[in-house]
Amino acid sequence: MITTLALRGLLDRPWRSLFLLGGFGLGVGVMITLLAIGEAMVLQSKDEKLVGGGDVTVLPEGLDLEVMKTGGVGGMFVSIANARFVHRQLLAAPRLADRVAAVAPQTDGVLLYLRSGSTEYPVRAMGELPAATRAVGAAPTIVSGTWVDDEHDRRWQQPKPDELLHEIDRFHITPASLSEAERATWGEWHYFNVINDARTRWAFLTLAVGGDVPNGTWGGQVLLTVHEKGRAARRFERVVAPRDVRLDTTRADLALGADRVEVLPDGRYLVTAEAREVGTGVRATVSLMVTPTPGAYFPGTSIGGDALVSGYAVPGLRASAVGSLCIAGVCETFDGAQSYHDHNWGVWRDVEWEWGAGRAGAYTLLYGRVLRSSADDVREPIFVYLVDSLGFRALFRPTDIRYEDTRSITVDGVRVRVPARATLEDVRGTDTLRIVLDIEDAVGSDVRRDRRGPGARVARAKPYFIQMMGTATLSGRLNGVPLQGSGTGFFETYR
Predict the structure, then answer these.
(1) How far apart (Å, rounded) are the C-alpha atoms in residues 464 and 493?
(2) Which of 66, 141, 189, 216 lies 20 to 30 Å (CA to CA) from residue 359?
């Protein structure tokens, strides 16, 4: 009877019957889908957990938390750049000691490949620090054996002074992936500067290697420029053959013959150098012990990818120097003098930059941007990196630097207009920043000179490299606290 009624109803009103049947089928399908999703969520909530285990989980900005599950697709290939720096200078920093009880870095779902003979197996790896994980209450149950920190765990969390410097200040070799022309322009160097207490005399010292290191044409060089207010800069050089160069891709130490940069166990740099003045042959020697201020460092970054390889680290953003600078036997001594140290590596062809570093009272600042004028133009935004006595303080991103080119200098007989003042400003939420650079001295170099022969020139939109010394004045507000300070700094640009 029911079947007969159903068939009669279908034949009497076929379109209405089909519409009702379609709606019923769609409703059943939706219900089945929702039940399947609900069951999957219940199973996942039982079997999976967010990476972490403490009260707060730190993840990369922009990551979808809904898919950030261990073992899930959203959890693969996720990492935080400079994780050691984030741990030491942000999360576990002394600045947050009254609010952060424990920090446990973890990585999970990392795709690795295990090779056994000629066979390769994909595996999923995880890593964590036993004591730190235990401190946040996320330690697994140990069925047998022990699970404790080893030496690598200790070094990751709390490196000794020299270990930290070797970590961020180590050397590199020229990447084989670069073109032949790019390998020829590869360069890497230690750079130091020091200024006397009267702010009347300062020196820039570079110990460098360059070329196709270590398999092609390459070598080392010592460069020293000595500046004095109101006088022309003096330039000293020495070329070092590859056989006399010693460098290590796991350490910061560099030897160029008898000259060297050596990291001591207590975190100080022993720096010695000798060079001859260009044009006169006068001998200059440098002997310095440079002591970086703890926590005042920039951990290092490499930008540009295939278009531009440019690496930069600042192990001694705020440092002091003890030692001497001697020219023709006449020496100037330093005792606790303001100093600075950075490390650069990369392809230095068709490259310009804006750069500056200096003290501003209790604060120390670093700003910069790398520019490459070529077919594959790369223009990175400006950054301003600020530290104080507790380490990293803030990062700002001004859109530009406003220069007032009201000074002029002479470069190879040509008058060049250069900055007398520069300003950087930024607003990030309720935080504000204003830096004013008052330039007291500037020198320039013509970067169009070509090594192919005397008088040869290469085309450059901005042919003059300008090095400046002056005063940096900092103002603004950070987390409701006024920023204020002034001090000596060094700055670079192109004109």
Answers:
(1) 9
(2) 189
Same domain, 355 and 487: yes
- Domain stops at, among 158, 184, 200: 158
Secondary element (H or E) of residue 368: strand 363-372
With a threshold of 0.90, does the pTM exceed it? no
310 near 342, Cβ under 8 Å? no
Distance CA 299, CA 204 (A): 22
Query: Partners of 254 in the beta sheet?
Result: 247, 261
Q: Which domain holds residue 435?
A: 350-495
Count of domains forming the chain = 3
Q: 268: burial class by Cβ within 10 Å (0-12, 13-18, 19+)?
A: buried
Say how far apart CA 294 and CA 311 lie, in whole Å.
Answer: 22
Q: Where are the beta strands (DSSP E) in 61-170?
A: 106-116, 119-128
- In tens, the pLDDT along 38-80 reads 776 665 554 444 555 567 777 666 666 555 554 444 444 566 7
- Report helix, strand or coil for 268: coil
pLDDT the model gives residue 23: 75
Same domain, 143 and 74: yes
Judge whether residue 315 has pLDDT over 70: yes
Supply the pLDDT for residue 48. Answer: 45
Shared domain check, 243 and 110 = no
Using alpha carbons only, how large is the chain's radius of gyration in Å?
30
> 2 lies in a domain?
no
If asked whether residues 241 and 342 sit together in one domain, one would say yes
Indicate the pLDDT class of residue 454, thresholds 50, 70 and 90.
Answer: very low
Distances (CA, A) of 206 to 143, 245, 438: 55, 14, 25
CA atoms within 13 A on the CB side of 489: 29
| pLDDT tens digits, one per residue of 97-122 | 899 999 998 877 778 889 998 899 99
The answer to whether 241 and 256 have CB atoms below 8 angstroms apart is no
Q: For residue 189, give the CATH number of its domain.
A: 2.40.370.10
- Whether residue 167 is contained in a domain is answered as no
How is 166-207 classified by DSSP, letter by letter? HHHH------TTS-HHHHHTEEEEEEEEEE-TTSSEEEEEEE
Q: How far is CA 352 from the centre of its chain?
A: 18
Phi-psi domain of 455 (left: phi exceeds 0; alpha: psi -120 through 50; beta: other): left
Any domain includes 46: no
What's residue 371's pLDDT? 78
Q: How far apart (Å, rounded) are the C-alpha atoms in residues 104 and 174?
A: 35
